[in-house]
Design brief:
alpha+beta; protoporphyrinogen ix oxidase, domain 3; seven-stranded mixed β-sheet; five-stranded parallel β-sheet; 22 strands; about 35% helix; globular
């Protein structure tokens, strides 16, 4: 697409990025890399409705506490987060989890019990520790150990977490272990959570090996992470200054390279452009509210917000986007003196089965996972409330959530006295629910969106909720848009290298 000005010079490509969370920042950063590699002028404007960038990720430093308000780490076996940190010069700032506490706890009859060594979310990889664990009855253990004898599923349609675990391991495994471990990640109802969208690794293990247990044992082998329990904690890292350091580095990089960042400026509409040289008009509010012309648009926002923006252009696409449901959560971040806690907190956190009928989903022992999150003699805890299974709790006031957390921490972990710090962070409709059929729905959304190739969708609603997944999806969206605007093949054929 040659875009000459009246004087014959090539005018900049005009791109609008709507959304200033991790997705929008990563997409903007990748567009800058592509433009620099191609030697093409680029006029990029990033809009964010809130008065700060970062979306659901943020780190606050209060006295000697470094408080995480959203994601506190990311996994490295998906390389995209690590690669982005390298390109931003942040690799020396990465820190791994503490080996000393590399395990999880599950509440059983009101008492925290360690997840068996080597357990991997849904399945044991090490049989001995699983058989010695008190989490399941002997009947439950025997049923789970029959998993290699269960025939692989022949149907190719999607399946819920509830159905998958009951079928392969039994109801007790689902209720006592799988539901709380996975619920701590997705805040989801296991009866509708899609295996293909949320946990495809386990579907693939069943299909490849005929057994999840045998597949895990074959693939993990003597991996350095085989001794951890719950999530694969040996693969997780964060930044020394907290996850907010990644967002700050992205913001700094894009501003240094000329991106116009407009915070407190929500986008209200995307219309077909009135300027014959521009595809779209982006209507926005804020201090400099009005209209800008854009050759391309990145919608880096929740699916329901993207639906509102595209409804006038493509009602069918909007309807498909509206089918993605969301859950809300609250995180109560507290700091306590260790002398006020009777439990040794010898783990990275505690997850709570729905069968326990408590008022919290999980408690993360943040300062046990990473250094410099609380001063000596103190501990930082992050208590998760709400989600898809207890949305009514979020109707309570912040003070009521603080009191609820205080009561639950006292009962579950023996936390007494007043916390030194207590923050309530609410994330309304922030966690997309990957329900059964989600992969097919995303395919439909992609087909409908192809009618507008210069408007691309990205965010955690589509192909993964983890930090690396979000970064990867945003960068791929940027590459698709760039290829359309400059009429070049997509990345992988002859596009720009990362880090340009």
């Amino acid at each position: 697409m040659g875009m000459p000005t009246a004087g014959g010079e090539e005018r900049p490509l005009r791109i609008a990025v709507a959304g200033g969370g991790l997705s929008g920042l990563a997409a903007a950063h990748r567009l800058l890399e592509l433009a620099a590699s191609a030697g093409r002028p680029l006029a990029l404007t990033l809009f964010e409705g809130r008065d700060r960038l970062g979306g659901v990720i943020g780190t606050e430093t209060v006295d000697d506490y470094r408080l995480e308000m959203g994601a506190d780490s990311f996994i490295t076996n998906k390389p995209w987060g690590l690669e982005l940190c390298r390109r931003l010069g942040l690799e020396p700032r990465l820190v791994s989890t503490s080996p000393e506490y590399r395990r999880s706890l599950i509440l059983q009859r009101g008492r925290p019990v360690a997840v068996p060594e080597g357990f991997q979310l849904l399945s044991p990889a090490a049989i001995g520790p699983f058989l010695r664990s008190p989490l399941l009855s002997w009947r439950g253990k025997l049923r789970a150990m029959c998993e290699p004898l269960i025939p692989r599923r022949r149907r190719s349609d999607d399946e819920s977490l509830d159905s998958f675990v009951r079928r392969r391991f039994g109801a007790e495994m689902l209720e006592r272990i799988a539901q709380p471990l996975v619920g701590g990640i997705y805040t989801a109802d296991p009866r509708v959570l899609s295996m293909r969208a949320a946990l495809p690794r386990f579907v693939e293990l069943e299909q490849k090996y005929g057994s999840v247990i045998l597949g895990l044992r074959a693939e993990l082998g003597a991996s350095s992470d085989a001794g951890s329990s719950g999530a694969r904690y040996g693969l997780f890292v964060t930044l020394r200054g907290g996850m907010g350091e990644l967002l700050a580095a992205l913001e700094r990089r894009i501003v240094e390279r000329g991106v116009c960042v407009r915070s407190a400026s929500p986008v209200d509409a995307i219309n077909l452009g009135v300027d014959p040289e521009a595809a779209y008009d982006v209507i926005h509010r804020g201090p400099q509210g009005g209209r800008i012309a854009a050759d391309g648009v990145v919608l880096a926002m929740p699916a329901y917000r993207a639906a509102a923006l595209v409804r006038g252009m493509n009602p069918r696409l909007a309807a498909a986007l509206d089918r993605i449901e969301y859950a809300s959560t609250a995180i109560v971040v507290t700091v306590h003196r260790l002398s006020d806690v009777s439990h040794p907190l010898d783990a990275f956190g505690l997850v709570v089965p729905a069968a326990e009928r408590r008022r919290v989903l999980a408690v993360s022992f943040t300062s046990r996972k990473f250094p410099e999150r609380a001063p000596a003699g103190c501990v930082q805890l992050r208590t998760f409330i709400g989600g898809a299974m207890q949305p009514e709790l979020l109707e309570r006031s912040d003070d009521a959530l603080r009191e609820l957390t205080r009561e639950e921490l006292r009962d579950l972990l023996g936390v007494h006295g007043e916390p030194l710090e207590a923050r309530v962070v609410r994330w309304e409709r922030a966690m997309p629910q990957y329900q059964v059929g989600h992969v097919q729905l995303v395919t439909v959304i992609g087909a409908l969106a192809s009618a507008h190739p210069r408007v691309v969708l990205t965010g955690n609603a589509y192909r993964g909720v983890g930090v690396p997944d979000v970064i990867h999806d945003a960068e791929q969206a940027a590459e698709r848009l760039w290829a359309k605007l400059v009429r070049q093949p997509p990345l992988g054929e002859s596009a720009a290298p990362r880090g340009a």
